[in-house]
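chain below, 325 aa
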Amino acid sequence: MTLFTSKFLAPIAVTCLLALPAHAATVNFTLGTENNSSDFSVQAMQHWKKLLADRSNGELQMTIVDGGALGSGVEVLQQLSNDEIQVSISGPTLVHSMAKPYQCMEAEFVYDDADHGYRVWTGKLGKELSDYMTKNYDITISGVGYRGARVVTANKPIREPSDLQGLKIRVTNPLRSKVFAAFGALPGPLPYSELYGALRQGVFDSQENPISAIFAQKFYEVQKTVDLTDHVQSYYIVTTNTEFLDGLSNEQRKIFNETAAETMTWLNALVKKQEGELLDEIKKSGVEVVKSDVPAFKKIAEPIVRDFAAKNCRPGILDDIAAAK
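prediction:
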């Protein structure tokens, strides 16, 4: 798989004196995420934190609150919209919770590969989505990074859709629920931070996430198989409160945007380098890695995605996604 290079570019206090002249006072702000410190996204945010401080001569100081300490991904986005925090990084939670006309940007089997999806997220549709979020929620998309293909984990091999029959799988958005129900699974929601325990206790039989998340959250410790369904190309999205961003001085905003873009390039390289290594580490733990019949899953999913898009998504979105190949 070929990866791209990046082109994009209060209860938690913001002790900010914004739009200041040269030698401005320190701007302290908070980044919240439900991902834990082992996740590639949080490693990238630590990298960004250092870049921000170094390039601004200490003016831009970011505090990172990870591991779901501020709540679920949706709750974190709500806090971001309210300027209770100023920055976040997550998977595409926003399209399923706030920007529903754009849900199909994270639909099953709509991308040929990682580069295709990246062109969509960083191109015309991505800009359109960012404008929608700014208009409706005071949120700006500040960066997009590759997260990996989503795959299934379970306690038995999942080679064909029928192997999911009757398995309770953690799924958190309506379209994915429809798709996995069509595979024969029993989809249901659960907060990310509770998933490890639910798998260990047998409350859920299965889950689906990118390899990096499976490793970071140690889901392989409580599952017997990693099943390479590759049903969604997934991306990290960096989001910023628009009022906060607009309140920075011109120089601070320039540093913020430039270092965000550099961080996404750094993150993409990290994922490219380590994704295969993480899968090898999971294999070493005794977990079976299963090559699933991807075309069989795609055949079932495609008509469901088309029907869902026609009823719920922005008109023409699937055509625009296909045109970005």
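Strands lie at 27-32, 60-65, 87-90, 139-154, 168-170, 186-188, 206-210, 225-241, 288-290. The first strand starts at residue 27 and ends at 32.
thats it, cya
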